């Protein structure tokens, strides 16, 4: 009787590639759009950070470079800072950082390979690496939020250690505090 239950459960599983897309292709209901323009797949929230890095690097080599922050001792390009953001002059940003609207970054803070979404605050001397800081979130003074680097060319945002798959980036959701 348990074997019948297992068989029923197996038949309830739908596999996108095998059960749906292949049938659509066979029936000419499935098409491919080919582009020579920049494109990066984003399947998970964590894949936004390497996609952001690629986008910023592409922007730096195009007409969009004027939108990026001017390189300096504390700005390691490419970095995008929204015009409404407030970044203390002693904070160090970059490379591959996007700072959203109304973000506040305090003195001595360090942000690298990360996305900081609108209304977030990173207090003085905090460190944010390989992370996404969500809307309205707060990273306290001297706090550290750190993920694991994801190579830009990689399509995986997870690492496997001791047989366990773990997301490699750190993501704070909306209105979180650290």
From TrEMBL:
Documented EC number(s): 2.7.7.13
Enzyme class, broadest EC rank: transferase
Bilayer-spanning residue ranges: none
Molecular function as annotated in GO: GTP binding; mannose-1-phosphate guanylyltransferase (GTP) activity
InterPro entries registered for this protein in UniProt: GMPPB_C, Mannose-1P_guanyltransferase, Trimer_LpxA-like_sf
Biological pathway: Nucleotide-sugar biosynthesis; GDP-alpha-D-mannose biosynthesis; GDP-alpha-D-mannose from alpha-D-mannose 1-phosphate (GTP route): step 1/1
Record-linked Gene3D superfamilies: Hexapeptide repeat proteins
Pfam families assigned: GMPPB_C (PF25087)
Location of the Mannose-1-phosphate guanyltransferase C-terminal domain: 75-171
Matches recorded under PANTHER family: SUGAR-1-PHOSPHATE GUANYL TRANSFERASE
Protein's recorded name: mannose-1-phosphate guanylyltransferase
Organism: Fusarium albosuccineum
């Amino acid at each position: 009787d348990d074997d019948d239950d297992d068989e029923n459960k197996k038949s309830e599983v739908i596999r996108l590639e095998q059960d749906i897309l292949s049938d659509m292709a066979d029936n000419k209901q499935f098409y491919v759009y080919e582009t020579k323009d920049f494109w990066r797949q984003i399947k998970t929230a964590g894949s936004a950070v390497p996609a952001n890095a690629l986008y910023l690097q592409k922007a730096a080599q195009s007409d969009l470079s004027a939108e990026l922050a001017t390189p300096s001792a504390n700005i390691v390009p490419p970095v995008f800072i929204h015009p409404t953001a407030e970044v203390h002059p002693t904070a160090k940003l970059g490379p591959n950082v996007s700072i959203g609207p109304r973000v506040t970054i305090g003195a001595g803070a360090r942000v690298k390979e990360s996305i900081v979404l609108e209304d977030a605050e990173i207090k003085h001397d905090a460190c944010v690496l390989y992370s996404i800081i969500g809307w309205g979130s707060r990273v306290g003074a001297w706090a550290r939020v750190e993920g694991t680097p994801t190579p830009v060319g990689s399509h995986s945002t997870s690492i496997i250690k001791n047989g366990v798959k773990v997301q490699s980036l750190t993501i704070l959701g909306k209105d979180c505090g650290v």
